[in-house]
Amino acid sequence: MSRHSYPALTRRMFILGSGAALGTSALPMALRAAVPADSAMAVVAFDGDALLAAGSNLIRSEDNGKSWTALPVPAAILGLATHPAQPGHLFAGLASGGVVLSQDGGRSWETRSRGLAEGEVDAVAVAAGQPDMFYAAVRGDGLWKSEDAGGNWSLAIDRPWLEDAERDPLALASVDLATGMGGIWIYAGTPAGLTRVPDCFCRWQDVQPGDAMDALVAGDTPPSEAPLPRSEPVRALASALSAPETLYAALPSGVWTSRDGGVVWSHVAQGSASAVAVHPADEKRLIAALDGVLKLSRDGGANWTTLAVA
Amino acid sequence: MTRKLIIIASATVTSLVAIAALAQQQDHDASAEGLTVLGEPVTMEEIAVGRQLYAESCASCHGANLEGQADWKRRLDNGRMPAPPHDETGHTWHHSDQDLFTITKNGVEAVVPGYESDMPAFEGTLDDAEIRAVLAYIKSTWPERQRTFQAKVTANDEDRS
């Protein structure tokens, strides 16, 4: 089912409205307050060692958050993805619709939306093993893919169906774990929890404990499960390229982590989390937006330091 | 000029003979181009049986030419997915022989627990040999790339179990 009209104005206006506040605070370099990251701060990412945080604005730090540069964006950014094989390449989904690519770390942008459906792009991802394979979730429409870094887009599959309704992915992550179908998984966070689809796009499905069916058949105790809290939206998702079974998720209750591809989750940070990203080469190094501020962790989320503009 | 023509002419004769021999060899129980289902070689006869069974049991949803339901990447109003193509434009060739067999016999839920789908389970309608024949027919329509990919998926699946 595709949608033809959508009452998205409230959310978008909210993002733009609070983004204006971010713009003023991110630009002057003399600010001493913590870097504000309220709902306007929709996404965070690593570009190699550089830190990125984006919403109505984009800020970039080359020194672990000690100093920040504000960079122009074509429109408010809802989804942001990078790949270590393409340093300086930022792939972003826009609140105004469409996707853009920067090849210079966010200084300039070009539109890469040919063939893509119209509508807000809530989430984007770059395939773990194929830096030219891009995915984009178009609000009210479905999951799209491009095999040539955004040159051309085609529909991959409709939106996931969870709890009796179609749900918009709010977050996407390419997770380099084998599906048994000759490819890897794409995980999606939605307003109704976590789901995933193989990259052959045969069907959206729940995360299942790997050997649950075998265990049932053999009469053994099935492996334990500890899913994310069902009632909460999954606003951001990150899979560590260096250890793909390690996942992080940002929820209103905080940051959660899984060490087994999403079967067993544990709660590592309290507070309302709106964004989380993991370093491409170090699965313990995180950046998150928690309770409206940016925070860094170097130990998988056990300890956090609040980032401030010096 | 003349010599070249002669070479071409005799080459044509040779290949015609080769084709005739091949056709004879593929009659009835001869195996079909190295194709297997669940590890067993597929015969031309099996493919013919499978083609017939496909037309009777699968074509109504998956299309007479394996093209799938219209707009098959979009959900139906009931929230379920339409029947995908079984030719190379679909994703059937991403599944191992065992998964294809299980899905056909017991439905999609048998490989994705809890999944709701309009794909019927054919257990009780088709016996195992008939399911095998339908899959043999479907596989026989795939181009080389899809066959090779699916053979690898099947081999990996066998390694796991």
From TrEMBL, chain A:
Signal peptide positions (record): 1-33
Classification via PROSITE patterns: TAT
Keyword Signal assigned: yes
GO biological process: xyloglucan metabolic process
Keywords of the record: Signal
Coiled-coil blocks: none
Source organism superkingdom: Bacteria
InterPro entries: TAT_signal, WD40/YVTN_repeat-like_dom_sf, Xyloglucanase_GH74
Protein name, entry field: Photosynthesis system II assembly factor Ycf48/Hcf136-like domain-containing protein
Species of provenance: Devosia pacifica
Lineage: Bacteria, Pseudomonadati, Pseudomonadota, Alphaproteobacteria, Hyphomicrobiales
UniProtKB/TrEMBL annotation, chain B:
PROSITE patterns: CYTC
Entry annotated with the keyword Translocase: no
Domain of life according to the entry: Bacteria
Stored SUPFAM superfamilies: Cytochrome c
UniProt cofactor(s): heme c
Annotated Cytochrome c domain residues: 45-142
InterPro entries: Cyt_c-like_dom, Cyt_c-like_dom_sf, Cyt_C_IC, Cytochrome_c-type_DH
Pfam families noted in UniProt: Cytochrom_C (PF00034)
Keyword Heme included in the entry's annotation: yes
Signal peptide as annotated in the record: 1-20
Any GO molecular function: electron transfer activity
UniProtKB keywords: Electron transport, Heme, Iron, Metal-binding, Respiratory chain, Signal, Transport
Official protein name in the record: Cytochrome c domain-containing protein
